């Protein structure tokens, strides 16, 4: 429908422009480097300490716009030339930024119209960062011009290894200004062709919202409750596409000037803002900024899901952990420190999930500004510090693990379905319950697999599922008829499906699939849902096995057998968890969210019935293992996230490349310790 | 004082234009009907299912503005002609809307100045509904023109039974735009005559707020705390009056064109926003949208109070339950489903309290838009569903109860006083406690009467109280000297009064009645209140009997006897509940809010002393009974709101017209069941 | 650096213009008097009741602008002449306001540009008070003109005793309008000289914030998170200075016209908004509005700290309790009443801490307006009321205590360090924990001293500390190198220092002192802090003695000995409380906030080791004592804040001037009672 919309194919990943980087650096190690915050005398110490720490890649210039273009059109690259030369001399490669993430004061003073306008009409003032409207022609023109200057200046520089476009695009606050309104109208016209198409897609016969022309359409600027949900949903799609257009405009310039240098941008910690299925084809490698909370006991499990997303975005291609914190961050209400060893453990977890880079924000802790309490590789206390010691030690380990670079994971048996428009629509207004969050649903399903040591991919609803033994569909509220057919065929052909409640409710325009929920999946699931009956927040739902929360609904079986029942209230005796043999496969349905222990039992049963095995058998509680297949055979990375030493019985004798121990048949891992195993 | 202010008389209820509707429909049954959301093929099924369900009245076109006037001044009534004809053919009457509730995109695009401006300056953007300024001349002109077109088109149409003006006016967000400012100044000039009058009324000598002219007055647009309370109070009055003026302008057009067709508008679920004493004289029948929360165990008791308000607004005239939900709604954080039978039970509760219509939002559940998860008579699952079965069954029952239509309740012995300006002023800023809510106070007093099976009317403070044995005054913060005299004369003449704390504090301009609280009632109550000492939110107040909450104060008896005392803190030993013989009557005073059990004991004692009896004697806990007097004698509607079967000993043998059982001397009602009793 | 910035010297307190007031009034007694709210007949009763109550000073006209200048440039002083004459005749002195706190409607209607604009762009509408931009030239011009008129009118009037400029300046909401932006740029240019200086001070190399010229600088108008902290900090400094400039402009006019009349302004209840070290040199006496919450069991202890601030602001000079409430206030969510006797007890507490005036808001309780539920000396109930009885009794007592007027406290042995820029910066965004509040830290340290009966001064970080045995530094986040040196020299010279965590972190531009926290204090403390590890809000921190909360960090001793250790988590075994002998002194450090009982034990030990003794030995729990040195010798004021009678063993026989009892060796004080002791 949309001629200009980005290509959503996950298959067209283009040339492997990233191979050169891999060959040059192995597992890349380093961090954001902001030398403009420091006097020149510090730069020499920087390069010396980088070498000491094994740093081979630094991201330079992400917020340097005002430093390299201090006045409109007047460039000052002198200082950066020195920095790039020093890096090259020191053998450190540069992930060089286009520097366009934060427009300088001179630009916003001359063009206040580029500032982001929030939904309620308040303008975001300069003074923070990323305060630009992605649809602003003025912003785009200035940004592209800068990217061009930077590319021209450093094309061929020996330090230049990869381009870093913008910064965490998804963190840009959605803009609702006049330029956005105009761009949104063009986007809609592209998507729907005619105003009749728009009216149909947005169900505007409701509440007298029928448009006479595209010119009457506005961004969703705080209407009286409740807003048109299709309007909100399309604005989320549009915002993602507009940010991508900013990225692509800069990328085009870079590729013109330096066709062989790979290009990427760092995806922000929150997965939600932009549709990464549409973005991933346009980066040469997925780059991600990960900030698990050390105070969250479930942090490693949640990170595992996120890293599975990153590895899956480009079909298993190794990705770059572009940022993480060596210790505490500074932007939570309470910023917990990482206890000794956790930085190493979590870095290796990313590698276990397919990362080819372990990088930090940032190299040297800022003295001033809003992020001065964000930890860094070189802390305020200087290199004589616990953090820098751990940084140095980790650099040594990763350099020794060079063979892992480029190694892919063996094929996973399990896929978890993720779709951004469904996520956005699920969390909209005026639903049966306002407590539904996609990530909660995804974590609830991913966690029992993580605990069982099972490897998972993450896929789009219309992906080819043929290779998977088990497909898990958490809360896929929005589903096209095509997605319905895809999943139905998967089950029919012999697959095992687990779907959680409130899935398949609406089409891509947020219009209900009529005739009994969840219409596109009813045949495969063998049931019909007639009414929703969500409990209050935190209220338990009585079940015949364990207890549920968050949701309950009236399920009418149409072939499915009941595995767990509701046992209280108006739903007592009705199905809560069902199983349905369909074609050659099996489809499970969860009409509530069982408690974690019940989920663990259920998923253990389901995956066993589906023939899904863990990466390593018999892993103790809290120990995670993942595999990567190197040119020289399989490697297992084993991580002890638990609080005590654990013993892992190995299926065959192995050696630990980190400790040098082996051959081992029992691996003993201290709390927080890591092993890199190869066959003995 | 105000020449143009609406007439507040509750007596002038005009001709009974509603009689024809009653004769035609009996207890009207149906719901909102929005055919423009569906293709024509569905329309035929609609009428067929309506007949199957016993539907005889549907509200058509409430949000059809954009559909009937798709461009300025260009009308398209073709589709609606077809709908109206189909309804007429199917024997379904139309409650036809003037369609002015939600201005279409073309209007707000051409005239953004009609959009509501919130107190803090943020404009409500189109995209929801009811986003208009009621004082906007542009909005009013367009709305009246549309009403005129609709009336001219359907005058004399056989389906047309009653006009439905606008929609839930009270839900329109108060506007603070320039047009509002100008209208407010005119309203003030009308009310106060001179700026000296305004200054006096608003106590502007405080904080240097004295106005030099009306032109200096603004709407209360988020001043620094704390705002002038008289300013806020008058803005609430003004907002109510401006919305009423919108209604009246459309009504005038309708009455010109179709003088015999009754006119009404549906009052919104929240009673608070507009002063219904001023509105009620201008509707031919009170129409109300009721949405009790199925998750609230006190929902039926609260609904009983609200329905008493509705029945009382026009002196006992039967009212129309214009909207309710067949199941869940979609606008709460958590939307509980109605368990089987609750829709029927609550529908009959409305009839028991005097409703002559049982209608729903809406006929067919929307496929798209903001309310698609609001339940409907025909749900997404279609007519083969529990909900539609119950809808059909209820239609059958109500059709058989035709004789109830028009029947009034026998005179009640108890009146509860309700006054909108007092409510608004009570909940303003900068009071001794910010935790006071009028509805909490009203419910606290109404509940023990409801539990005892006692019928209540609701009256204005200046109503004729002569017919009542007991008058209950919850938290009447604002009271005119006239109201004081009215209540004093009532007691003096032999009545029993119960007044709860923080009553009679200020005059209609929110100025304190000096000389000891509550000055206008001190003589009747026989006491003086010297200081307020509210506890913290949720903190109990120790009493000699039970415990209190929300409030405490220092009462100095001046003739009153102490029935319950405070027993803790600085007030220990002082009166918490008092009784005073005054003239031939008795006045009780509550200086705190006793717990429900204590309230029940107190009110049982008070009403017995006052000679007030329940509708039926000896009702078990949870069973409610109300009576209506038909042409053919008294009918009792008995409702079991409890969780188990209940047995009611009847004072005389009766028959149950719903079950056909009888003659009975003991009525056995299952949980959730209803009986319609007539003398055997 | 800043040529126009106010003089911060605490020493230059100018001539003692206040002596005349003291001689005329003794301990001044009275309240705010707003006769314009009442008809003339009330004025006569007012003066009669004032005399009856011993009132000798009233604050007149604080919000009278609209009454004395009802139209632009047209003055009506007639009514005020009458009031002033009546006061003079009645022997009541006037603290006469310049009346500029609340611009009248005619001014804001003509000049809406003077209205305060909030950080998010919303304008504060008229209707409350203090809705002006302090940088507005229009506001300043009108305010100064009014002050001039008032001064000219009442120069030499016999009632005039002292000028009251504006009202609670610190309560004016910070403004972000264009006039503010221009003034801010001038202020910055003054402070930093060049844009390079600004860029350096604000660390603008971070996030591309480098300014090309001052004209690009804006107020911090809600930037995207997180804002530049140095920008925010300077805006707080600027706001304080701009408000002070308003005060000084009016003061200059008053001093021109009435050079002998003292001038002051009342500091608002919240200490935080303006830097009182910069303000204090410009008032002839510190005046303070105190509103402890009667519902807060710690109210008296917190008030003690605040009163210590007030007494210390001008080096021990007696201060004026300009406002307090006789009973409840009206602006809290729940406004507790003062039980009988509390008004007297808390009034005497202020006197014990050096107050020379006991005044109230307000004389007569308003009938209308936003503060009508604020208690007053003459309540709504009139003079026949508990409150007025207590007012009269207190007036009698204070008149008898005339000798205390002007008496200073004996020198304190303890000083607590307070610095406003540090306070503001501490509570900014993006810190290791967002739960840090300066006052919590100050109270935590002051409370054990208060409980022990020890008198404290409050000092700036660069004050001369030579006279103190113990200096307490709570959470001095921001510290200049000078302050570091000052405190280091203090310890070296033999002093005892107690410093709590997260002190000495940044310089006055909010830039980290590098090289290990807290760099400026490391030598004196004998330690280095490497990382912060704050617990969650409310989470306890395990200690070897008691438990901590709010904070934890990794302390590396460099000479300090560990007194208390952490015993849980990653910090187990590391120091939580340390002591370091440095030079001839001792420095203690608290790396968490120990619970109150542990703090009490620690501080008792520390002060004993430092040789600090309580004001009176052996005070029972809940009994407070403070001393003032009159011309006729020392007086002790002893206050029983506890709930039961207490017996105080006196070190020598004394007489109680209030009860007349004595000579006593044991003083028995009822709950809430006060004694004024002199040597027998």
CATH superfamily annotation of the largest domain in chain A? Glycosidases
Quaternary state reads homotrimer
Q: Give the biggest sheet of chain A.
A: 9 strands, parallel
* Widest beta sheet: strand line-up of chain A: 5-4-3-2-1-9-8-7-6
CATH class wording of the largest domain in chain A: Alpha Beta
Protein name (chains A, B, C): Beta-galactosidase
Enzyme class (chains A, B, C): hydrolase
Keywords (chains A, B, C): Glycosidase, Hydrolase, Metal-binding, Zinc
GO cellular component, one term (chains A, B, C): beta-galactosidase complex
What do you see in this structure?
- Chain A has 680 residues and is α/β, with parallel strands linked by helices.
- In chain A, 31% of the residues lie in helices and 19% in strands.
- Chain A has 3 domains: 18-172 and 262-404, TIM Barrel (Alpha-Beta Barrel); 414-610, Rossmann fold (3-Layer(aba) Sandwich); 623-679, Immunoglobulin-like.
- Chain A has a 9-stranded parallel beta sheet. A 7-stranded mixed beta sheet of chain A has the order 11-10-12-13-20-19-18, sandwiched between helices. Chain A has a 5-stranded antiparallel beta sheet with strand order 22-23-26-24-25, with helices on one face.
- In chain A, strand 6, helix 10 and strand 7 (287-289) form a beta-alpha-beta unit.
- In chain A, helix 2 runs parallel beside helix 4 and helix 11 (299-313) packs across helix 15 (438-451).
- Chains in contact: A-B, A-C, B-C.
- Chains A and B meet through helix 9 and strand 14 of A and helix 3 and helix 5 of B.
